[in-house]
């Protein structure tokens, strides 16, 4: 491609709306342009990167035995009502009506559609297993689109769905797709880690893993152990202090004095209460009121801990969980937020294992400006519902080996689920097994955010003041820069190398613009080709200045430059 013909407009200034480095560089380099919040156009450079990522995904999906297909983005709402997700999915589901007032949704995912297709196409075990995938645009009405392609309202996704006779078949499909994901992200040049995860709105009946690219800008927190292979999303992570707890709490007291009231005027927060009573936050029992599918619950954790909403949602098997409003709390507890406690509270109480194991603690008294000291778990409030309801903290023991847990930030690239029979039972997707009995299909689901992968690769590929794409996804493998457009020897050598690399099937960009060298070099930093061939004064002797991925410039013969690029391109394929 000749740069004079390429639709490429680079920006010198960092766009004010771009927080993440990848967002800044993709805008400055002319890869993407925003049309509306969370909605982007991909200009030629960006589209080239996306197509290369797609190509590798297709290669690995096909090699894993999956079959590509295409499903509509507009889906009948009836399918979502049939699965039970229409009301449960929440505000991110974009709903619309046609001129006949029939209700549809813009697909954020395709479990309902694929289940509907397969239940009509497959009725016998003889046609199982089957794995189907597509690469298609998805839509989610994100409340706060941010970080460019990281969290958008329209994005490109690969979603695959496996169908099996039984759980043994699903286990095999899951392992196959897990391994394929590892190959895909490795080929993209990413530093990543698979972690245990929560199934979220997709749901499921078995294990699930997210594949995380390590990056400081990541919205997710990865909890991992350096001494063993344990790794989990913070939503799912456990501490060795609470993992596997049976609910028996030997420290729970059944005797002693009743809790004592303490006047605590305007003392609402844990920090204020700790200072007022001159005690550590670990001696305080924090009570938060949540609304889960319309019903209120109190959740108790130590004052130095944070409630994990996802764990609460999973324990209650709820579709939606959120903090109750101030008015709801006042009505349910008789006291405002900050003074609520479990003693005498007429709500179901979820007690974290750490709280249940306390001999006594400080709580709200369900009366304004009042707290209780000496509240005893198991005596002054019930331990009927105990579990792991908190976020782990860095440095706690690993649940597998006991060594200290570490925190890292990550970008979710892909997610694999064992759906089991969640959708097939709800939507009556069955088959006749070899014993003549009708059984529900056993499903798996496997997604990759293709456009997010592009952003994650960019995030990890910014080296100081330049972008250096991995060879496998780079829009161009080599960038030929002719320093002086008036020098005929430079022009002749540039055209020769451009022709040779093009004939070898290498994606090459020739900067044939009549611009100052400084402009060309700055644009080359934004284009990010891993190999840069600079043709200057050495052209007369057949030499060029070479700069590879390491950023080191050397003078080499022009023929050697062609050989280096061809070898690197062959490896990337």
What is the strand and helix layout of this fold?
Layout: H1 21-28, E1 32-36, E2 39-42, H2 44-63, E3 67-68, E4 74-76, H3 77-83, E5 94-97, E6 103-106, H4 111-121, E7 130-139, E8 154-164, H5 167-187, E9 192-196, E10 208-214, E11 220-225, E12 231-233, E13 260-263, H6 270-277, E14 285-292, E15 295-302, H7 309-316, E16 321-323, H8 326-333, E17 348-352, H9 353-356, E18 361-364, E19 370-375, E20 385-387, E21 405-420, H10 422-426, E22 430-432, E23 438-440, E24 442-449, H11 450-460, E25 462-463, E26 466-467, E27 478-482, H12 488-503, E28 508-511, H13 517-527, E29 531-535, E30 543-547, E31 553-557, H14 558-572
Parallel strand pairs: 3-7, 15-17, 17-20, 27-28, 27-29
Antiparallel strand pairs: 1-2, 4-6, 5-6, 7-8, 8-24, 9-10, 10-21, 11-12, 11-21, 13-19, 14-15, 14-16, 18-19, 21-24, 22-23, 25-26, 29-30, 30-31
Helix pairs in contact: 1-11, 2-5, 2-11, 12-14
């Amino acid at each position: 491609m000749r740069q004079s013909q390429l639709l490429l407009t680079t920006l010198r200034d960092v766009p004010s709306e771009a927080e993440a480095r990848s967002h800044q560089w993709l805008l400055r380099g002319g890869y993407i342009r925003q049309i509306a919040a969370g909605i982007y156009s991909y200009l030629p450079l960006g589209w080239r990167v996306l197509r290369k990522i797609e190509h590798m995904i297709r290669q690995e999906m096909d090699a894993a035995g999956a079959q590509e297909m295409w499903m509509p983005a507009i889906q009948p709402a009836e399918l979502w009502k049939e699965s039970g997700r229409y009301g449960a999915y929440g505000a991110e589901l974009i709903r619309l009506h046609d001129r006949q007032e029939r209700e549809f949704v813009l697909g954020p995912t395709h479990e309902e559609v694929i289940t509907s297709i397969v239940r009509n196409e497959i009725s016998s075990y003889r046609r199982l297993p089957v794995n189907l995938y597509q690469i298609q645009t998805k839509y989610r009405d994100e409340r706060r689109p941010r970080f460019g392609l990281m969290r958008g309202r329209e994005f490109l996704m690969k979603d695959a769905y496996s169908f099996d006779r039984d759980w043994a078949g699903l286990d095999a499909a899951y392992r196959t797709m897990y391994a394929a994901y590892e190959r895909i992200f490795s080929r993209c040049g990413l530093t990543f880690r698979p972690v245990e995860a929560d199934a979220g709105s997709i749901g499921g009946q078995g294990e699930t893993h997210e594949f995380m690219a390590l990056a400081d800008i990541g919205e997710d927190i990865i909890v991992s152990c350096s001494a063993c292979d344990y790794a989990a999303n913070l939503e799912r992570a456990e501490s060795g202090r609470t993992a596997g707890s049976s609910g028996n709490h030997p420290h729970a007291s059944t005797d002693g004095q009743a809790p004592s009231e303490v006047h605590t005027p305007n003392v609402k927060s844990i920090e204020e209460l700790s200072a007022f009573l001159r005690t550590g936050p670990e001696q305080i029992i924090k009570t938060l009121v949540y609304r889960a599918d319309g019903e209120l619950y109190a959740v108790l954790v130590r004052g130095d801990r944070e409630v994990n909403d996802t764990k609460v949602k999973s324990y209650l098997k709820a579709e939606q969980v959120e903090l109750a409003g101030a008015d709801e709390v006042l009505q349910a507890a008789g006291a405002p937020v900050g003074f609520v406690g479990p003693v005498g509270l007429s709500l179901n109480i979820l007690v974290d294992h750490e709280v249940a194991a306390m001999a006594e603690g400080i709580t709200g008294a369900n009366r304004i400006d009042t707290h209780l000291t000496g509240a005893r778990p198991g005596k002054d409030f019930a331990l009927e519902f105990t579990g792991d309801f908190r976020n782990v903290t860095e440095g706690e023991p690993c649940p597998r080996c006991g060594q200290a847990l570490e925190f890292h930030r990550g970008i979710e690239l892909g997610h694999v689920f064992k759906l089991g029979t969640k959708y097939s039972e709800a939507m009556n997707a069955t088959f006749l097994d070899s014993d003549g009995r009708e059984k529900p299909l056993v499903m798996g689901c496997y997604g990759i955010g293709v456009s997010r992968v592009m952003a994650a690769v960019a995030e990890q590929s910014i080296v100081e003041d330049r972008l250096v794409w991995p060879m496998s996804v780079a829009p161009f493998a080599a960038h030929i820069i002719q320093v002086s457009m008036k020098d005929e020897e430079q022009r002749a050598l540039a055209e020769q190398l451009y022709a040779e690399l093009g004939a070898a099937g290498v994606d090459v960009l020739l900067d044939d613009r009549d611009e100052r060298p400084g402009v060309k070099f700055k644009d080359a930093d934004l284009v990010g080709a891993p190999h840069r061939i600079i043709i200057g004064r050495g052209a007369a002797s057949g030499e060029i200045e070479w700069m590879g991925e390491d950023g080191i410039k050397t003078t080499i013969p022009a023929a050697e430059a062609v050989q280096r690029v061809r070898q690197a391109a062959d490896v990337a394929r």
